[in-house]
Batch of 2 targets.
Target 1
Amino acid sequence: MNNKRVGIIGAGPSGLAQLRAFEALKNKGIDTPEIVCFEKQSNWGGMWNYSWRTGVGKFGEPVHGSMYKYLWSNGPKECLEFSDYSFDEHFKKPISSYPPRPVLFDYIQGRIEKSNAREYIRFNTTARWVDFDNTTEKFRLILDDLKNDETYTEEFDYLIVASGHFSTPNMPHFDGIEDFPGHIMHAHDFRGADQFKNQKLLLIGSSYSAEDIGVQCYKHGAESVTLSYRSNPIGVEWPEGIKEVPLVTHFDGSTAHFSNGETEDFDAVVMCTGYKHKFPFLPGKLRLKTKNNLYPDNLYKGVFFNDNPQLIYLGMQDQYYTFNMFDTQAWVSRDFIMGDYQMPSKEERRKDIDQWLARYDQVEDGLGDVDFQSAYIKDLIRLSDYPEFNVDKVGAMFKEWLKDKEENILTYRDKTYKSVVTGTQAVEHHTEWMDELDDSKERYLKFNERVEELTT
């Protein structure tokens, strides 16, 4: 009997991937450790579990989710497809390449609902503190049962941190912003474009959230959208009504002043300024300390905390690949816990980390990012029995996606791609994305019913 205990913090896509990895062994009749997953929300899905709440949740905990209404996948679904659970298997027919949030959430749930994963998850439970006993080589995890207002302690041989890193806002200060008369929020608290209809909106930032929120607000009726960048603009050809300007220097009432000398009045400001890796339940000696990048330092193979490999971090990278990357990480982590993957010495691990960091330093652009993360995925697949998928074809799709966005930021979601798992060609959505104002699963799937059978 396997007497090990494994604790997982978070039941989002990464935590669910870890549960699924162990489930794959159980399905083969292999004895696995006792697994307990703690999720502070009332349901699984992490960021994909939409909530109207901002600030604090029902039990006074910081709201985890940064998901908003009208969010559609900003990359082809074929690039994140589970290799052991295809979109064909879930939906029984081809769908478009850029589904809305409720459809992707349904897909995530579809795989995990086939397992017994829910019985391993304690919902409405948050991690308060962790320490590690060097004598017993066990983690002590202090937890709060939020619903019953109870605090208790559990011990684990391995601890997996799958709590995500897109939930603690990075909120900069600009002189004069305290007197700005309009609405100010971080993208973390953005829940939809409706409130900005007919308004002049300033977005500060130049990454994916600025791009997507800006286009969404334009689509849903904002009077104008201005994106302010610190270093480099997004640089696509924007339609009339959206523009990019250099960084804000200060505010004077409702007027924003920019570093190029321009000024403009705005009704609202959304900070699309990124997130912090924040682990308030971990002491400094166990805490991952990194900015958002493709290869955080001190994580061997991007997952094992080098100072203590019994501490495992999932999904801590900046992401081109998502669900399938979490899977490859979870499978390798599982094999280490099961004793099937032998961990090299700390010195050898450090050397491997340094090699990846040196390689990352040579990356110059988005295409290089894709190649780097593709190589990382291949490295992980080599270490476990995760069902292989054609990483090179997925990488090529990511590069095509980058090109599509440059060609037309408003229409790239109308393109279709072919699954590397099943070979199925996606169908065009019944409505062009710019004209589709309803992101419900019901409308999305109902109007695709004209496609009766899979075509390859």
Target 2
Amino acid sequence: MGLIKYIKEEMQIIRERDPAIRSSMEVFLYPSFRAILHYRLAHKLYKRKHYFWARWISQRTARKTGIEIHPGATIGKGLFIDHGHGVVIGETTIIGDNVTLYQGVTLGGTGKEKGKRHPTIGNNVMISAGAKVLGSFTIGENSKIGAGSVVLSEVPPNSTVVGVPGRVVKRDNVRLPREDMDQVHLPDPYKRDVINLRKENDCLKGDLKNICDRFDRLEKMILDINKTMESKENKDK
């Protein structure tokens, strides 16, 4: 009954978050479904210190699905990995409930440090395609990480992060990322910086033009004075 309940929950999660699905039976074809199901088994073996068999299951699953989840990771309910190829979840990663990951996401460490070295992901977080979250810190609940971002430090709850390195560009967005699933329409801090640089450049061009105009007028005045003086000297002669 536990397995049947789990399958029903996974069907509901995938149908809720993936508009491409047309029938419940398609769930069995999803790499995410198989990867998480095998992770649950590997995690039980890992907790019982059957490390070899736990890693054997996880590596076999990685080869078949393209999703690598270390059996030591702690994952809550409702994780959905869309497409999933290239997703890597490290050993000490902690993932809360109702989290969504897209293809190419890495939840990794920053070196060979011991102990907790991977991120903690809060409830209802969405991490977009290609994003990298590296280090032992927390991504606050209800947060959204933009595609291709590299997050290296703590993220407060209800935040939107974009860029390399990732920067918080929006906070206290009460909409749950798992409901809107929008990984495209995010604030762009680089665009804002470029706009500001263009404005400053236009101001500098205006100032430089004024200086050049004043210099031209000054040069003309000097030439006129020289001509006047030369004319006066010729008359005196």
